[in-house]
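hey can u check if this looks right to u? its 478 residues, i copy pasted from the old doc so theres a chance i mangled smth
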Amino acid sequence: MAAVPGGRRSGPAAGARFFCTAGRGLEPFLMREVRSRLAATQVEYISGKVFFTTCSDLNMLKKLKSAERLFLLIKKQLPFNVSSVSKGKIFNEMQRLTNDDPESWLNAISIWKNLLELDAKKVKLSQKNANPLKRKVGENDIIAKKLKTAQMQEIQENKECQMEKQIEEETLEQGNFTTKRDKSQEELQNDVAEAVDTQKQNDLTFRVSCRCSGAIAKTFTAQEVGRVIGIALMKQFGWKADLRNPDLEIFIHLSDIYCVVGIPVFRVPLASRAYIKTAGLRSTIAWAMASLAEIKDVYYMGADVSDSQLLGACDNLKAAGLKDKIELLKASVIELPLPSESVDTIISDIPFGKKFKLGKDIKHIIQEMERVLRVGGTIVLLLSEDHHRRLKSCEESSVPLNSKGSRTDKPGSTECLNPEEKAAISEPASSSFAASNQECLDRMPPFGSLVPVECYRVSLGKTDALIYKYKKSHSPGQ
């Protein structure tokens, strides 16, 4: 699969093909996000990865919140068969990733360069338009460095112009006069630019990062795969290997399901938020929970009983510039200092009982949240498997009986919701996700006035967890 649907000169404006890695279970969140934030098309997924096409620039791509890393796609194909062939034959198949379709690689490199160049121009423009009154001490040194850099850039541009002129002269000396007469001036300039671009590509340094899983990981090490692909790239394109500080990194993932090759767009993962100074819940999980809550412009409040957690949260708010917009309270989740039905939305990562103990049964925690939540309000919880079992046992004993003495409604009933909410709940990212989510809902009956409407199983690394979304259907006692 080529990086772009068009030819060599296609750039981001024509729509480039990307993929993002995502934590297991977060694929539906990422699929929705790339559609809404990037106007992405051709959105599809495999476990842990979401593929899409977009015309967005780097500034928009940086804003993805549910992704771990972002890559420009070079190739995606069926997996290598390692069960019945020799190592040598598989090595030859790996080398064909580069040898059989070099155009895909050149397309991807061209798009990658265009993205970086456009981003660099925007950064320069923003710096140029900065308010000169905000200059700080030591500015003269900075200006001197910038002038020196500008002079070096000018020298480089002059060299490139000379190179273009030399290439053009050499082309003319070869007696290609008929071709010149047949071509327009614009076509000739494109040829010259392409020749210069090829010269630059030959000077690229690179390294290969590999990940192997499944049967192929039992046959080959990542180092072996990287060495084979690296040698093939050097022979095919004349690039030079540099393991420490390369211009370009090539990422390869070989599994039992697929072979994927891409270029990391950013050196730092998207999941690494610059404003998070004190580590807490994984940023992508936190964003997924917030997106389910559908938060509007409201008054925000955070609560925790631990001083250390509150201090860490305060540091993060300062770094994010949100200290004046979110109030922090020292309070227990089972004794919230809030009036009944005074809160629109609650988001909570309930302690898993490892680092921080629950203190009391989870039933009391949910009941207190139910008390302060208004009718029609939303609760989004991150639950462990143990939480889920204990909460389910509490709920099953508290589901109300109808006049005939039998249980009312099936678990996960959403009759209290309006038609728009029902439509949103029933709209899955894919049939497999829908089936998995429905299975979670069927296992979780209503808790008092709280009705479960969405459920997602997600990975936290070594353990799995469940994200549950509840709606409050009525006031207790009604």
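Residues 4-11, 133-137, 163-196, 398-429 have pLDDT under 50 and may be disordered.
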